[in-house]
Amino acid sequence: MKKTIITVVGKDKVGVIAKICTYLSDHNVSIMDITQTIIDSYFNMMMIVNTENLDIDFADFSHNLIALGDTLDVEVRCQRSDIFDRMHRI
Amino acid sequence: MININEVFETHDMIEKDNLDVRTITIGISLLDCASDDLGRTCDNIRAKILRYASNLKKTAEDISAEFGIPIVNKRISITPVSMVAGSCCKTTDDYLRIARTLDETAKEVGVNFLGGFSAVVSKGMTASERLCIESMPEVLAGTERICCSVNVGSTKTGIDMDAVRLMGQTVKKTSELTADNDSMGCAKLVVLCNAPDDNPFMAGAFHGVTEADAVINVGVSGPGVVKAAVEKVRGANFETLCETVKKTAFKITRVGQLVAKEASARLGIPFGIIDLSLAPTPAIGDSVADILKEIGLEQAGAPGTTAALALLNDQVKKGGVMASSYVGGLSGAFIPVSEDQGMIEAAKCGALTIEKLEAMTCVCSVGLDMIAIPGDTPASTISGIIADEAAIGMVNQKTTAVRIIPAAGKKVGDTLVFGGLLGEAPVMPVNRFSCEAFISREGRIPAPIHSFKN
Description:
The complex is a heterodimer of chains A (about 90) and B (about 450). Chain A has about 90 residues and is of the alpha+beta class. Chain A is about 35% helix and about 40% strand. In chain B, a hairpin with a 3-residue loop joins strand 4 and strand 5.
């Protein structure tokens, strides 16, 4: 399994999660966990996904996801989970 | 399982506090490139560097995209050139040709600096090493990406004062040859004592003879992250302060370790060390001086600066060694003047003097770094400054270095502007009393008594 963390931060509106999930599904990425909080109508979402069977290059996947976020007016970040595991766990 | 707060904390460290991996440096041994024919040696060097480093840039970019961490520099360090070119270089022009080959190859593989146009002469110089040093001013003026370094002493060997004298003249000549470019050549020339074999940071990086054929060394950074963490415990006692710095250094180093391991696996080159240094940049919020201020000083250079820096340096190391099995290089806090907005400010307002910086080098990982001095400073005075720094390194069994820039045609109050990561340097006053007679003495300073441990 190749765990990847996707975060979405921005103004809450209809269809953000749906569009992102569709993109993930289009590229064979399964969602393992979603955490979401809404503060002052801004939402912060974190998805843990499995990119083991990703059908395109990771850099392209990440780049397209960020671009998709731009069209939805939200900030998307996509990183392999190792950076968080290493930094926050001994 | 990682939680959302930890993820956003990491994002803040990268985006707000300038956390980055400062450099991935491939160390490459050129010992097997030596021949008695200059053309063949150059061909061998080019082929060897291309073999190991062709994929460095792309690999670093891929890792950066996947893990979401900026990797600022991709660099190469090589076996000290004077060891490789001894039998084929008979003139300084021959050395210049090797430097051009290195410069072109560095450009071809997309690295911004290549270190190792170096000589290790801690006890004495061979004729070839002297020639190598004499070629440095022209090399620095005639190439773009080559960094030069000379190790003039060590705790085990003492200090080669003939090399120290020669380096005073070399620094001065480099400044004059690059006068049109704000004496930029001197920013790529460093004089060391106890130089490490595995340092990934420029300008002092070279691939020592103790190393394998090729190795990946990674330098991490993060003064901004430490400053942000220290801000959160403003006014707390020393125990809390130290714990905070240590924990932050741990997190920073773990990122470096991750990147180093990935780069090593993808390039098929063994992992060497992590250099856990707080390396500032001229960007606002990426300053070691600002950490010192946050610890409680009005300006870097105020009384208490040496103690605060000692604390900072030690806690960075203690946090860092927990995070990586192989820590090496310089590891500690860097205090370059021109590359640190807070240091520039302190130097400009008179809080920071060269003498105070010298005291600070006793407790941090490097030495007098990126300091501009008046262009009319005599070569013997520069040698005196180098000798003082080398003595601190020799006696305290640590690395020290001098990267000093005599600002050709400029005086105290003027500023040199290098741009980019090298920043800008206010010209600082130098003690005007002479050490000419001291520097004119020939020979070497013996190793200190505590070096005899056999």
